[in-house]
Amino acid sequence: xxxxxxxxxxTVFVVxxxxxxxxxxxxxxxxxxxxxxYLEQRRNQLQGIIxxxxxxxxxxxxxxxxxxxSVPVIAPRLVCAMMRDRLAEFDxxxxxxxxxxxxxEKISLGPVDIEFIHVTHSVPESLAxxxxxxxxxxxxxxxxxxxxxxxxxxxxxxxxxxxxxxxxVIALLADSTNVERDGCTPSERTLIEPLDEIFASAPRSIVxxxxxxxxxxxxxxxxxxQRYKKKVFVTGLNMSxxxxxxxxxxxxxxxxxxxxxxxxxxxVSPERRVFLTTxxxxxxxxxxxxxxxxxxxxxxxxxxxxxxLSSRIIPGNEKAIYHVINHLYRRGAEVFYExxxxxxxxxxxYREDMRTLIALCKPRYVIPIHGEFRHLVQHKxxxxxxxxxxxxxxxxxxxxxxxxxxxxxxRAERIPVSRILVDGFDVGSFDEVVLRDRxxxxxxxxxxxxxxxxxxxxxxxxxPDIVSRGFLREExxxxxxxxxADVVRSSFEECARExxxxxxxxxxKVRSRxxxxxxxxxxxxxxxxxxxxxx
Length: 535
Description:
With 535 residues, the protein is of the alpha/beta class. Helices cover 30% and strands 23% of the residues. It has a six-stranded mixed β-sheet. Helix 5 (158-167) links the parallel strand 10 and strand 11.
Protein backbone atom coordinates (compact mmCIF):
# COMPACT_ATOMS: atom_id res chain seq x y z
CA UNK A 1 0.00 0.00 0.00
CA UNK A 2 1.18 3.52 -0.67
CA UNK A 3 0.50 6.84 1.04
CA UNK A 4 2.74 9.88 1.34
CA UNK A 5 1.95 12.96 3.43
CA UNK A 6 3.36 16.36 2.42
CA UNK A 7 3.29 19.26 4.87
CA UNK A 8 4.31 22.87 4.18
CA UNK A 9 3.48 25.40 6.88
CA UNK A 10 -0.24 25.08 7.55
CA THR A 11 -0.87 23.15 4.33
CA VAL A 12 -1.10 19.35 4.42
CA PHE A 13 -1.97 17.12 1.48
CA VAL A 14 -1.75 13.42 0.76
CA VAL A 15 -0.48 11.58 -2.31
CA UNK A 16 -2.17 8.20 -2.83
CA UNK A 17 -4.03 6.05 -0.34
CA UNK A 18 -3.78 2.38 -1.24
CA UNK A 19 -4.48 -0.91 0.41
CA UNK A 20 -2.58 -4.15 0.43
CA UNK A 21 -3.70 -7.71 0.95
CA UNK A 22 -2.85 -9.42 4.24
CA UNK A 23 0.07 -11.74 4.81
CA UNK A 24 -0.70 -15.38 5.51
CA UNK A 25 -0.47 -14.84 9.27
CA UNK A 26 -3.35 -12.32 9.23
CA UNK A 27 -6.04 -14.97 9.14
CA UNK A 28 -9.49 -13.75 8.10
CA UNK A 29 -8.32 -10.17 7.47
CA UNK A 30 -9.62 -8.68 4.21
CA UNK A 31 -7.31 -5.69 3.73
CA UNK A 32 -4.52 -3.70 5.33
CA UNK A 33 -4.80 0.09 5.00
CA UNK A 34 -2.67 3.08 6.10
CA UNK A 35 -2.77 4.47 9.63
CA UNK A 36 -4.50 7.88 9.48
CA UNK A 37 -3.80 8.96 13.08
CA TYR A 38 -1.27 11.63 12.07
CA LEU A 39 -3.76 13.17 9.66
CA GLU A 40 -6.46 13.21 12.36
CA GLN A 41 -4.15 15.48 14.35
CA ARG A 42 -3.89 17.82 11.34
CA ARG A 43 -7.46 17.64 10.17
CA ASN A 44 -7.85 21.43 9.95
CA GLN A 45 -4.73 21.78 7.78
CA LEU A 46 -5.60 18.96 5.36
CA GLN A 47 -6.26 20.49 1.92
CA GLY A 48 -6.89 17.44 -0.26
CA ILE A 49 -5.74 14.05 -1.46
CA ILE A 50 -4.08 13.41 -4.82
CA UNK A 51 -4.34 9.97 -6.43
CA UNK A 52 -1.73 9.28 -9.10
CA UNK A 53 -3.36 6.39 -10.95
CA UNK A 54 -6.06 3.72 -10.88
CA UNK A 55 -4.36 0.86 -9.05
CA UNK A 56 -5.70 -0.36 -5.72
CA UNK A 57 -2.32 -0.20 -4.01
CA UNK A 58 -2.57 3.55 -4.64
CA UNK A 59 -6.32 4.24 -4.40
CA UNK A 60 -7.91 1.18 -2.76
CA UNK A 61 -8.09 2.66 0.77
CA UNK A 62 -9.59 5.94 -0.44
CA UNK A 63 -13.15 5.03 0.66
CA UNK A 64 -11.92 4.50 4.23
CA UNK A 65 -10.02 7.80 4.05
CA UNK A 66 -13.15 9.62 2.84
CA UNK A 67 -15.21 8.20 5.69
CA UNK A 68 -12.99 10.26 8.01
CA UNK A 69 -11.97 13.31 5.96
CA SER A 70 -14.12 15.52 3.77
CA VAL A 71 -11.54 16.96 1.38
CA PRO A 72 -11.28 17.19 -2.42
CA VAL A 73 -10.02 14.16 -4.34
CA ILE A 74 -7.64 15.32 -7.09
CA ALA A 75 -7.05 12.58 -9.63
CA PRO A 76 -7.18 11.51 -13.30
CA ARG A 77 -10.69 11.05 -14.65
CA LEU A 78 -10.33 7.24 -14.67
CA VAL A 79 -9.62 7.22 -10.93
CA CYS A 80 -12.55 9.58 -10.32
CA ALA A 81 -14.95 7.43 -12.35
CA MET A 82 -13.86 4.18 -10.70
CA MET A 83 -14.05 5.72 -7.25
CA ARG A 84 -17.52 7.19 -7.80
CA ASP A 85 -18.67 3.71 -8.73
CA ARG A 86 -16.98 2.09 -5.73
CA LEU A 87 -18.15 4.65 -3.17
CA ALA A 88 -21.75 3.55 -3.72
CA GLU A 89 -20.89 0.62 -1.43
CA PHE A 90 -19.73 2.90 1.41
CA ASP A 91 -21.72 5.04 3.81
CA UNK A 92 -20.39 8.60 3.45
CA UNK A 93 -21.99 11.59 5.12
CA UNK A 94 -21.65 13.58 1.91
CA UNK A 95 -20.34 12.76 -1.56
CA UNK A 96 -16.73 13.84 -2.05
CA UNK A 97 -15.73 16.58 -4.46
CA UNK A 98 -13.66 15.19 -7.32
CA UNK A 99 -11.26 17.42 -9.23
CA UNK A 100 -10.18 15.77 -12.49
CA UNK A 101 -6.65 16.53 -13.68
CA UNK A 102 -4.41 15.39 -16.51
CA UNK A 103 -0.81 15.84 -17.59
CA UNK A 104 0.24 19.44 -18.16
CA GLU A 105 -2.30 20.89 -15.72
CA LYS A 106 -1.48 22.69 -12.48
CA ILE A 107 -3.34 23.27 -9.22
CA SER A 108 -2.55 25.13 -6.01
CA LEU A 109 -3.04 23.87 -2.48
CA GLY A 110 -2.35 26.85 -0.25
CA PRO A 111 1.14 28.12 -1.12
CA VAL A 112 2.06 24.86 -2.88
CA ASP A 113 1.79 24.63 -6.69
CA ILE A 114 1.45 21.12 -8.09
CA GLU A 115 2.14 20.28 -11.73
CA PHE A 116 0.94 16.98 -13.21
CA ILE A 117 3.16 15.11 -15.65
CA HIS A 118 2.19 12.30 -18.04
CA VAL A 119 3.97 9.02 -17.34
CA THR A 120 3.39 5.61 -18.86
CA HIS A 121 2.37 2.65 -16.72
CA SER A 122 0.21 -0.46 -17.01
CA VAL A 123 -2.96 1.58 -16.45
CA PRO A 124 -3.96 4.65 -18.52
CA GLU A 125 -3.80 8.25 -17.33
CA SER A 126 -1.01 7.71 -14.81
CA LEU A 127 0.56 10.89 -13.46
CA ALA A 128 3.74 12.02 -11.75
CA UNK A 129 3.78 15.19 -9.65
CA UNK A 130 6.10 18.18 -9.60
CA UNK A 131 5.56 19.86 -6.24
CA UNK A 132 6.71 23.47 -6.54
CA UNK A 133 7.71 25.14 -3.28
CA UNK A 134 9.11 28.66 -2.78
CA UNK A 135 12.62 27.21 -2.42
CA UNK A 136 12.51 24.53 -5.12
CA UNK A 137 10.79 21.53 -6.69
CA UNK A 138 10.16 17.97 -5.52
CA UNK A 139 9.25 15.31 -8.10
CA UNK A 140 7.09 12.37 -7.02
CA UNK A 141 6.85 9.82 -9.84
CA UNK A 142 4.52 7.25 -8.28
CA UNK A 143 4.53 4.12 -10.51
CA UNK A 144 5.96 4.54 -14.01
CA UNK A 145 7.90 3.03 -16.86
CA UNK A 146 9.25 4.67 -20.00
CA UNK A 147 7.10 3.43 -22.89
CA UNK A 148 7.83 5.36 -26.08
CA UNK A 149 5.10 3.52 -28.03
CA UNK A 150 2.08 3.28 -25.70
CA UNK A 151 -1.02 1.46 -26.90
CA UNK A 152 -3.20 4.52 -26.37
CA UNK A 153 -2.99 7.92 -24.72
CA UNK A 154 -0.15 10.29 -24.02
CA UNK A 155 3.41 9.05 -23.85
CA UNK A 156 6.08 9.59 -21.24
CA UNK A 157 6.66 13.35 -20.94
CA UNK A 158 10.44 13.56 -21.42
CA UNK A 159 10.24 17.29 -22.17
CA UNK A 160 8.68 18.34 -18.86
CA UNK A 161 11.06 16.22 -16.79
CA UNK A 162 14.02 17.68 -18.70
CA UNK A 163 12.79 21.25 -18.23
CA UNK A 164 12.32 20.68 -14.51
CA UNK A 165 15.82 19.23 -14.33
CA UNK A 166 17.29 22.31 -16.00
CA UNK A 167 15.48 24.61 -13.54
CA UNK A 168 16.61 22.53 -10.57
CA VAL A 169 15.07 19.66 -8.63
CA ILE A 170 15.70 19.35 -4.92
CA ALA A 171 14.50 15.78 -4.50
CA LEU A 172 13.30 12.94 -6.72
CA LEU A 173 10.98 10.34 -5.18
CA ALA A 174 10.95 7.50 -7.71
CA ASP A 175 9.56 4.00 -8.17
CA SER A 176 11.99 1.22 -7.17
CA THR A 177 9.93 -1.90 -7.90
CA ASN A 178 11.92 -3.28 -10.86
CA VAL A 179 15.39 -2.08 -9.90
CA GLU A 180 16.68 -5.67 -10.03
CA ARG A 181 15.92 -5.91 -13.77
CA ASP A 182 18.52 -4.68 -16.24
CA GLY A 183 17.74 -2.83 -19.44
CA CYS A 184 14.59 -0.96 -20.41
CA THR A 185 11.05 -2.06 -19.67
CA PRO A 186 9.46 -3.51 -22.84
CA SER A 187 6.62 -1.54 -24.37
CA GLU A 188 3.07 -2.81 -24.01
CA ARG A 189 3.05 -2.99 -27.82
CA THR A 190 5.60 -5.81 -27.76
CA LEU A 191 2.73 -8.09 -26.73
CA ILE A 192 0.77 -7.53 -29.92
CA GLU A 193 2.78 -9.94 -32.08
CA PRO A 194 2.85 -12.94 -29.70
CA LEU A 195 -0.81 -12.48 -28.82
CA ASP A 196 -1.66 -12.17 -32.51
CA GLU A 197 -0.01 -15.55 -33.13
CA ILE A 198 -2.09 -17.15 -30.38
CA PHE A 199 -5.33 -15.62 -31.67
CA ALA A 200 -4.55 -16.66 -35.25
CA SER A 201 -3.92 -20.31 -34.35
CA ALA A 202 -6.46 -20.89 -31.56
CA PRO A 203 -8.88 -23.61 -32.72
CA ARG A 204 -11.57 -22.83 -30.15
CA SER A 205 -12.40 -20.34 -27.40
CA ILE A 206 -9.80 -18.03 -25.87
CA VAL A 207 -9.87 -17.12 -22.17
CA UNK A 208 -7.72 -14.05 -21.47
CA UNK A 209 -6.99 -13.34 -17.81
CA UNK A 210 -5.32 -10.17 -16.53
CA UNK A 211 -5.69 -7.58 -13.80
CA UNK A 212 -8.99 -5.72 -13.97
CA UNK A 213 -7.09 -2.43 -14.40
CA UNK A 214 -4.93 -3.60 -17.35
CA UNK A 215 -6.92 -1.54 -19.85
CA UNK A 216 -4.08 -1.12 -22.37
CA UNK A 217 -3.82 -4.89 -22.60
CA UNK A 218 -7.58 -5.24 -22.93
CA UNK A 219 -7.46 -2.79 -25.84
CA UNK A 220 -4.99 -5.11 -27.60
CA UNK A 221 -7.33 -8.05 -27.00
CA UNK A 222 -10.32 -6.13 -28.35
CA UNK A 223 -8.43 -5.17 -31.50
CA UNK A 224 -7.28 -8.77 -32.06
CA UNK A 225 -10.80 -10.07 -31.48
CA GLN A 226 -12.10 -7.64 -34.09
CA ARG A 227 -9.32 -8.62 -36.54
CA TYR A 228 -10.20 -12.32 -36.26
CA LYS A 229 -13.96 -11.75 -36.24
CA LYS A 230 -14.49 -12.95 -32.69
CA LYS A 231 -16.88 -11.75 -29.98
CA VAL A 232 -15.79 -10.75 -26.50
CA PHE A 233 -17.50 -11.68 -23.24
CA VAL A 234 -16.49 -10.15 -19.91
CA THR A 235 -16.73 -12.16 -16.68
CA GLY A 236 -15.80 -11.09 -13.16
CA LEU A 237 -17.39 -8.19 -11.27
CA ASN A 238 -14.37 -5.86 -11.17
CA MET A 239 -13.48 -6.60 -14.78
CA SER A 240 -17.05 -5.88 -15.92
CA UNK A 241 -17.18 -2.61 -13.98
CA UNK A 242 -13.83 -1.38 -15.25
CA UNK A 243 -14.57 -2.28 -18.87
CA UNK A 244 -17.89 -0.42 -18.70
CA UNK A 245 -16.26 2.67 -17.17
CA UNK A 246 -13.35 2.65 -19.64
CA UNK A 247 -15.70 2.36 -22.63
CA UNK A 248 -17.80 5.23 -21.33
CA UNK A 249 -14.68 7.40 -20.99
CA UNK A 250 -13.39 6.40 -24.43
CA UNK A 251 -10.30 4.75 -22.94
CA UNK A 252 -11.36 1.42 -24.43
CA UNK A 253 -12.53 1.73 -28.03
CA UNK A 254 -14.30 -0.96 -30.02
CA UNK A 255 -17.43 -1.41 -32.16
CA UNK A 256 -20.60 -1.47 -30.08
CA UNK A 257 -21.37 -5.07 -31.05
CA UNK A 258 -17.91 -6.50 -30.28
CA UNK A 259 -18.56 -7.01 -26.55
CA UNK A 260 -21.64 -9.11 -25.80
CA UNK A 261 -23.41 -9.93 -22.58
CA UNK A 262 -22.38 -13.26 -21.09
CA UNK A 263 -25.97 -14.48 -21.36
CA UNK A 264 -25.57 -14.48 -25.16
CA UNK A 265 -22.58 -16.83 -25.20
CA UNK A 266 -24.49 -19.77 -26.69
CA UNK A 267 -25.36 -17.68 -29.75
CA VAL A 268 -21.66 -17.55 -30.68
CA SER A 269 -19.76 -20.61 -31.90
CA PRO A 270 -16.83 -21.69 -29.65
CA GLU A 271 -14.11 -20.72 -32.15
CA ARG A 272 -15.40 -17.12 -32.14
CA ARG A 273 -15.49 -16.63 -28.36
CA VAL A 274 -13.02 -14.56 -26.32
CA PHE A 275 -13.53 -14.30 -22.57
CA LEU A 276 -11.97 -11.45 -20.58
CA THR A 277 -11.62 -12.48 -16.96
CA THR A 278 -9.92 -11.77 -13.67
CA UNK A 279 -8.11 -14.37 -11.57
CA UNK A 280 -4.58 -14.34 -12.98
CA UNK A 281 -3.19 -14.58 -9.42
CA UNK A 282 -5.12 -17.75 -8.61
CA UNK A 283 -7.67 -16.02 -6.39
CA UNK A 284 -9.95 -18.86 -5.21
CA UNK A 285 -13.25 -17.03 -5.81
CA UNK A 286 -12.26 -15.44 -9.12
CA UNK A 287 -13.90 -16.21 -12.44
CA UNK A 288 -10.79 -17.99 -13.74
CA UNK A 289 -10.62 -20.28 -10.70
CA UNK A 290 -14.27 -21.19 -11.19
CA UNK A 291 -13.60 -21.86 -14.87
CA UNK A 292 -10.62 -24.07 -13.99
CA UNK A 293 -12.74 -26.09 -11.54
CA UNK A 294 -15.64 -26.33 -14.03
CA UNK A 295 -17.84 -24.34 -11.64
CA UNK A 296 -18.55 -21.38 -13.94
CA UNK A 297 -22.10 -21.37 -15.26
CA UNK A 298 -21.41 -19.92 -18.70
CA UNK A 299 -17.76 -20.74 -19.43
CA UNK A 300 -17.04 -24.45 -19.90
CA UNK A 301 -13.59 -25.43 -21.18
CA UNK A 302 -13.17 -28.14 -23.80
CA UNK A 303 -10.21 -29.78 -25.51
CA UNK A 304 -8.49 -27.21 -27.72
CA UNK A 305 -9.53 -24.10 -25.78
CA UNK A 306 -6.76 -21.60 -25.06
CA UNK A 307 -6.16 -19.81 -21.75
CA UNK A 308 -3.75 -16.85 -21.46
CA LEU A 309 -2.60 -15.64 -18.03
CA SER A 310 -1.30 -12.18 -18.88
CA SER A 311 0.33 -11.10 -15.63
CA ARG A 312 3.45 -11.81 -13.64
CA ILE A 313 3.37 -14.35 -10.86
CA ILE A 314 3.42 -12.24 -7.71
CA PRO A 315 5.69 -13.81 -5.06
CA GLY A 316 3.58 -15.71 -2.56
CA ASN A 317 0.90 -16.57 -5.12
CA GLU A 318 2.84 -19.32 -6.90
CA LYS A 319 1.00 -22.23 -5.30
CA ALA A 320 -2.47 -20.79 -6.00
CA ILE A 321 -1.59 -19.89 -9.60
CA TYR A 322 -0.06 -23.27 -10.44
CA HIS A 323 -3.07 -24.96 -8.84
CA VAL A 324 -5.32 -23.11 -11.31
CA ILE A 325 -2.98 -23.83 -14.24
CA ASN A 326 -2.96 -27.55 -13.42
CA HIS A 327 -6.75 -27.64 -13.40
CA LEU A 328 -6.88 -25.75 -16.71
CA TYR A 329 -4.65 -28.38 -18.28
CA ARG A 330 -6.88 -31.12 -16.86
CA ARG A 331 -9.80 -29.53 -18.69
CA GLY A 332 -7.90 -29.97 -21.95
CA ALA A 333 -6.93 -26.32 -22.41
CA GLU A 334 -3.64 -25.05 -23.79
CA VAL A 335 -2.28 -22.56 -21.25
CA PHE A 336 0.09 -19.65 -21.91
CA TYR A 337 1.69 -17.86 -18.94
CA GLU A 338 4.76 -15.72 -18.26
CA UNK A 339 7.13 -18.60 -17.47
CA UNK A 340 6.70 -20.20 -20.91
CA UNK A 341 5.38 -17.49 -23.24
CA UNK A 342 5.73 -13.78 -23.99
CA UNK A 343 2.30 -12.79 -22.70
CA UNK A 344 3.16 -10.14 -20.10
CA UNK A 345 5.28 -7.02 -19.73
CA UNK A 346 5.81 -5.05 -16.56
CA UNK A 347 4.39 -1.63 -15.82
CA UNK A 348 7.39 -0.59 -13.72
CA UNK A 349 10.70 0.96 -14.73
CA TYR A 350 13.76 -1.24 -15.27
CA ARG A 351 17.23 0.01 -14.34
CA GLU A 352 17.88 1.91 -17.60
CA ASP A 353 14.55 3.72 -17.24
CA MET A 354 15.57 4.73 -13.72
CA ARG A 355 18.91 6.01 -14.99
CA THR A 356 17.15 8.01 -17.70
CA LEU A 357 14.84 9.64 -15.16
CA ILE A 358 17.71 10.62 -12.86
CA ALA A 359 19.63 12.03 -15.84
CA LEU A 360 16.60 14.08 -16.91
CA CYS A 361 15.73 15.44 -13.45
CA LYS A 362 19.27 16.06 -12.15
CA PRO A 363 18.07 15.90 -8.52
CA ARG A 364 20.22 16.96 -5.57
CA TYR A 365 18.64 14.22 -3.48
CA VAL A 366 17.08 10.86 -4.38
CA ILE A 367 14.43 9.15 -2.25
CA PRO A 368 13.60 5.64 -3.51
CA ILE A 369 9.94 4.69 -2.99
CA HIS A 370 7.71 1.69 -3.76
CA GLY A 371 8.83 -1.91 -3.61
CA GLU A 372 10.42 -3.89 -0.80
CA PHE A 373 13.30 -2.55 1.27
CA ARG A 374 15.85 -4.49 -0.80
CA HIS A 375 14.57 -2.60 -3.87
CA LEU A 376 15.10 0.73 -2.12
CA VAL A 377 18.68 -0.29 -1.28
CA GLN A 378 19.41 -1.32 -4.88
CA HIS A 379 17.89 1.94 -6.12
CA LYS A 380 20.25 3.80 -3.81
CA UNK A 381 23.22 1.93 -5.32
CA UNK A 382 22.00 2.90 -8.81
CA UNK A 383 21.67 6.57 -7.83
CA UNK A 384 25.19 6.55 -6.41
CA UNK A 385 26.44 5.03 -9.69
CA UNK A 386 24.79 8.02 -11.40
CA UNK A 387 26.88 10.42 -9.31
CA UNK A 388 24.50 11.15 -6.44
CA UNK A 389 26.26 11.57 -3.08
CA UNK A 390 25.41 8.50 -0.92
CA UNK A 391 24.60 10.89 1.94
CA UNK A 392 21.93 12.42 -0.28
CA UNK A 393 19.98 9.21 -0.89
CA UNK A 394 17.46 8.48 1.86
CA UNK A 395 15.97 5.05 2.54
CA UNK A 396 12.62 5.49 4.25
CA UNK A 397 10.37 3.12 6.15
CA UNK A 398 6.81 3.64 7.34
CA UNK A 399 6.69 6.57 9.75
CA UNK A 400 9.99 8.14 8.67
CA UNK A 401 9.98 11.91 8.20
CA UNK A 402 12.17 14.12 6.01
CA UNK A 403 12.44 17.90 6.31
CA UNK A 404 13.14 19.77 3.07
CA UNK A 405 14.19 23.40 2.79
CA UNK A 406 16.47 25.59 0.68
CA UNK A 407 19.51 24.10 2.40
CA UNK A 408 18.61 20.52 1.53
CA UNK A 409 16.98 17.43 3.02
CA UNK A 410 17.41 16.04 6.53
CA ARG A 411 15.79 13.40 8.69
CA ALA A 412 13.34 14.46 11.38
CA GLU A 413 11.71 12.64 14.28
CA ARG A 414 9.76 9.53 13.26
CA ILE A 415 6.00 9.31 13.58
CA PRO A 416 4.55 6.18 15.20
CA VAL A 417 2.41 4.28 12.71
CA SER A 418 0.76 0.88 12.73
CA ARG A 419 -1.06 -1.30 10.27
CA ILE A 420 -4.84 -0.89 10.19
CA LEU A 421 -6.68 -4.14 9.60
CA VAL A 422 -10.02 -4.40 7.81
CA ASP A 423 -12.17 -7.40 8.73
CA GLY A 424 -15.60 -7.08 7.12
CA PHE A 425 -17.15 -3.91 8.56
CA ASP A 426 -14.56 -3.74 11.33
CA VAL A 427 -11.88 -1.17 10.52
CA GLY A 428 -8.98 -0.57 12.85
CA SER A 429 -10.45 -1.93 16.09
CA PHE A 430 -9.26 -5.47 15.50
CA ASP A 431 -7.59 -7.06 18.52
CA GLU A 432 -4.27 -8.88 18.26
CA VAL A 433 -5.70 -11.48 20.66
CA VAL A 434 -8.30 -12.42 18.05
CA LEU A 435 -5.57 -12.97 15.47
CA ARG A 436 -3.65 -15.13 17.92
CA ASP A 437 -6.76 -17.24 18.54
CA ARG A 438 -7.32 -17.62 14.80
CA UNK A 439 -3.75 -18.79 14.32
CA UNK A 440 -4.17 -21.38 17.05
CA UNK A 441 -7.43 -22.58 15.54
CA UNK A 442 -5.78 -22.91 12.13
CA UNK A 443 -2.79 -24.81 13.52
CA UNK A 444 -4.20 -27.10 16.23
CA UNK A 445 -7.97 -26.86 16.02
CA UNK A 446 -10.49 -26.49 18.82
CA UNK A 447 -11.79 -28.58 21.74
CA UNK A 448 -15.06 -27.78 23.54
CA UNK A 449 -15.72 -29.55 26.85
CA UNK A 450 -19.49 -29.29 27.44
CA UNK A 451 -20.95 -29.73 30.95
CA UNK A 452 -24.64 -29.64 31.94
CA UNK A 453 -25.06 -28.48 35.56
CA UNK A 454 -28.06 -28.19 37.88
CA UNK A 455 -28.28 -24.52 38.80
CA UNK A 456 -29.56 -24.92 42.36
CA UNK A 457 -27.11 -27.59 43.53
CA UNK A 458 -24.16 -27.05 41.21
CA UNK A 459 -24.06 -30.77 40.52
CA UNK A 460 -23.10 -32.24 37.15
CA UNK A 461 -26.20 -33.82 35.59
CA UNK A 462 -24.91 -34.64 32.09
CA UNK A 463 -21.58 -34.93 30.34
CA PRO A 464 -18.95 -33.86 30.11
CA ASP A 465 -19.03 -34.25 26.35
CA ILE A 466 -15.97 -33.41 24.28
CA VAL A 467 -16.54 -31.73 20.91
CA SER A 468 -13.50 -31.42 18.63
CA ARG A 469 -13.01 -29.48 15.40
CA GLY A 470 -9.75 -29.46 13.44
CA PHE A 471 -7.91 -31.36 16.20
CA LEU A 472 -8.46 -35.14 16.09
CA ARG A 473 -11.16 -37.22 14.42
CA GLU A 474 -13.52 -38.16 17.24
CA GLU A 475 -14.60 -41.49 15.74
CA UNK A 476 -10.97 -42.67 15.49
CA UNK A 477 -9.91 -41.45 18.95
CA UNK A 478 -12.80 -42.41 21.21
CA UNK A 479 -10.55 -43.71 23.98
CA UNK A 480 -8.51 -40.50 24.04
CA UNK A 481 -11.59 -38.27 24.18
CA UNK A 482 -13.05 -40.44 26.96
CA UNK A 483 -9.89 -39.73 28.96
CA UNK A 484 -10.31 -36.02 28.18
CA ALA A 485 -13.85 -36.24 29.59
CA ASP A 486 -12.49 -37.90 32.73
CA VAL A 487 -10.01 -35.02 33.19
CA VAL A 488 -12.82 -32.48 32.81
CA ARG A 489 -15.08 -34.36 35.26
CA SER A 490 -12.29 -34.62 37.81
CA SER A 491 -11.48 -30.91 37.48
CA PHE A 492 -15.14 -29.98 37.94
CA GLU A 493 -15.63 -32.21 40.98
CA GLU A 494 -12.56 -30.73 42.66
CA CYS A 495 -14.11 -27.26 42.54
CA ALA A 496 -15.62 -26.05 45.81
CA ARG A 497 -19.34 -25.19 46.01
CA GLU A 498 -18.50 -21.49 46.27
CA UNK A 499 -16.43 -21.66 43.07
CA UNK A 500 -19.43 -23.08 41.22
CA UNK A 501 -21.27 -19.83 41.85
CA UNK A 502 -18.78 -18.16 39.50
CA UNK A 503 -18.47 -20.26 36.36
CA UNK A 504 -15.49 -18.24 35.10
CA UNK A 505 -13.32 -19.83 37.79
CA UNK A 506 -14.61 -23.31 37.01
CA UNK A 507 -14.06 -22.88 33.27
CA UNK A 508 -10.48 -21.69 33.81
CA LYS A 509 -9.68 -24.69 36.03
CA VAL A 510 -11.15 -27.07 33.45
CA ARG A 511 -9.32 -25.35 30.60
CA SER A 512 -5.97 -25.36 32.41
CA ARG A 513 -6.12 -29.05 33.41
CA UNK A 514 -7.32 -30.20 29.99
CA UNK A 515 -4.70 -28.09 28.20
CA UNK A 516 -1.93 -29.71 30.25
CA UNK A 517 -3.32 -33.21 29.66
CA UNK A 518 -3.63 -32.73 25.87
CA UNK A 519 -0.15 -31.22 25.64
CA UNK A 520 1.38 -34.18 27.51
CA UNK A 521 -0.50 -36.74 25.44
CA UNK A 522 -0.25 -35.21 21.94
CA UNK A 523 2.27 -32.33 22.05
CA UNK A 524 -0.43 -30.07 20.57
CA UNK A 525 -2.14 -26.91 21.78
CA UNK A 526 -5.75 -26.75 20.55
CA UNK A 527 -7.94 -23.81 21.49
CA UNK A 528 -9.96 -25.01 24.51
CA UNK A 529 -13.33 -23.38 25.20
CA UNK A 530 -15.27 -24.91 28.12
CA UNK A 531 -19.06 -24.56 27.93
CA UNK A 532 -21.29 -24.79 31.04
CA UNK A 533 -25.05 -25.13 30.52
CA UNK A 534 -27.27 -24.52 33.55
CA UNK A 535 -30.68 -26.20 33.95
